[in-house]
Amino acid sequence: MPQQPQQQMTEEQVKELQEKIKNMSPEELKEFQKKQCIFCHIVEGKVQSKKVYEDDRCIAILDINPSNPGHVLLLPKEHYSIMPQLSEEEIAHLFMVAKTISNAALRSLGVQGTNIIVQNGIAAGQKAQHFMIHIIPRKEEDGINFALPQRKIPETELETIRKKLEAKLGAVEEATVPKAQTKPKIQELIKPKKEIVEAEFEEQENKTEKEKTKKAPKKKKQSKETVSLGDIAKIIGVK
Fold first, then answer.
1. Tens digit of pLDDT for each residue in 212-231?
2. pLDDT, tens digit, 9 for 90 and up, residues 40-93
3. 204-229: buried (b, 16+ CB within 10 Å) or exposed (e) per residue?
4. Total structural domains in the chain?
5. Which of 7, 159, 190, 205 is deepest in the core (most CB within 10 A)?
6. What is the dihedral of CA 194, 85, 158, 117, to 10 degrees?
7. Which domain holds residue 134?
C-alpha cells in the first residue's frame, strides 16, 4: 500500500509552533528538539546507521549522502544544537576523536587528506539541529571545491571588527575565570583524555585485567559561557 504523503503545516500552525518555541525554557526547547531529532534517534538506536566509532560521549556514523566515500558524521550523544552549548571538555573530546577518525581514513582509504568541518548555524550551511563534525576524506581532483573567496575590506572596517571581537573575547574571559584563580592555559583547556589519544579502531587482543578495568567517567562540566534562548532560536532559524 503506497505511503500517504505527509500533511504540510498551515501558515497558522507554523506561527503557533514558532510562538510556542519562543516561550520555551532552554530545557524545554532542548527536550522538544530531541524528540524531533533524527540524530538523537540514531544515538538511541531507534534508527539504523553505519556506525564506525562509539564511546560514552559520542558516536561516529557514515553519511548516507556523502560528499566523498568515507564521509563521517561525528555526533555528541547529548543533544546540542550549536557549538556554544558544549563545554570545553566536550569540544576537546570530540575534536580528539575527529583527529583519530581522520588518521584512520588516511591510513585505510587511500586518500591524501581530510576536511574537518563544523557548520555552526543556518547561515553557515547547518541543516540538522544536532551539532556535528564532518570528517570528509579527500583525493586530488575529487570534484569538491572548498576554495574561500578573498574580498578586499577597508582598513578602517578591519580595525572596527578587530575591536569588537577583542572586546567580546575579553568580556568572556573575565566572566569565565574567577579573580582568585590564575587564568588556565589553553593547553589545559583542550587537554585530551588519554584513551582518545591512544585510540585504535581494532580491538587489541590479550588485554590484561588491569587494562580492562577502567575508572568511572568524570561528570560532565557545565559550559562556562551561558547561551541564551534567543541565541539558540536565532541561529536555528526561529524568528
1. 555 555 554 444 455 555 55
2. 999 999 999 999 999 999 999 999 999 999 999 999 999 998 999 999 999 999
3. eeeeeeeeeeeeeeeeeeebeeebeb
4. 1
5. 190
6. 60
7. 13-139+150-199+221-235
For the ranges 105-119, 173-187, 217-231, the lowest mean pLDDT is seen at 217-231
* CATH code for the domain of 129: 3.30.428.10
Cα gap 196→206, rounded to integer Å: 20
What are the distances in angstroms from CA 10 to CA 33, 185, 236?
A: 20, 52, 20
User: Does the CA dihedral 167-174-84-68 come out positive or negative?
Assistant: positive
Burial class for 203, CB neighbours closer than 10 Å (0-12, 13-18, 19+): exposed
Residue 147, helix vs strand vs coil: coil
CA 16 to the chain's CA centroid: 29
pLDDT band at 238; cut points 50, 70, 90:
low
Asked if pLDDT for residue 6 goes beyond 60, the answer is: no
